[in-house]
Specification:
Blueprint: H1 3-14, E1 22-24, H2 27-30, H3 35-47, H4 49-53, E2 60-62, H5 63-77, H6 82-98, H7 104-122
Antiparallel strand pairs: 1-2
Helix pairs in contact: 1-5, 3-7, 5-6, 5-7, 6-7
Length: 125
């Protein structure tokens, strides 16, 4: 990961104590998202329909979670070093501890990120 991306994620992790930006996954924009995010969003809506019933068009994901997902995807596809992915995995663990219990989609996406990293690391052992 380049220095700027690491600084961005570090800044976002540090800002969890204050207000952090959210990304709204409107149905119009969902078509442009990655297959994993679309599938995860759909499963969340199927599993927790009452939580999304009032604001079905306002599915929210934290900017930090989305940044970690996109960073992980880039690192895996560009075959970054194991140390770089291990650092991202540490960021994921820190982020998981700071999430609120009702941020279901964020929790699930962070679990998916961890699974992708572990799968990638497992191919090199």
């Amino acid at each position: 990961m380049n220095k700027e991306a690491g600084m961005l994620i570090g800044t976002l992790i540090g800002s969890r104590k204050t207000i952090i930006s959210c990304v709204y996954l409107y149905s119009v924009f969902l078509q442009l998202m990655d297959d994993d995010i679309v599938s995860l969003t759909g499963l969340t809506l199927l599993t927790y329909p009452l939580s999304m019933e009032k604001n079905a068009d306002e599915i929210v994901i934290n900017q930090l979670t989305l940044s970690l997902y996109l960073t992980t995807q880039c690192k895996v596809k560009l075959r970054h070093s194991l140390m770089s992915l291990a650092r991202t995995q540490d960021y994921v663990r820190v982020t998981r501890r700071t999430l609120r219990h009702y941020e279901t989609l964020d929790h699930l996406l962070l679990k998916l990120i961890e699974h992708k990293i572990l799968k990638y690391l497992g191919t090199y052992q």
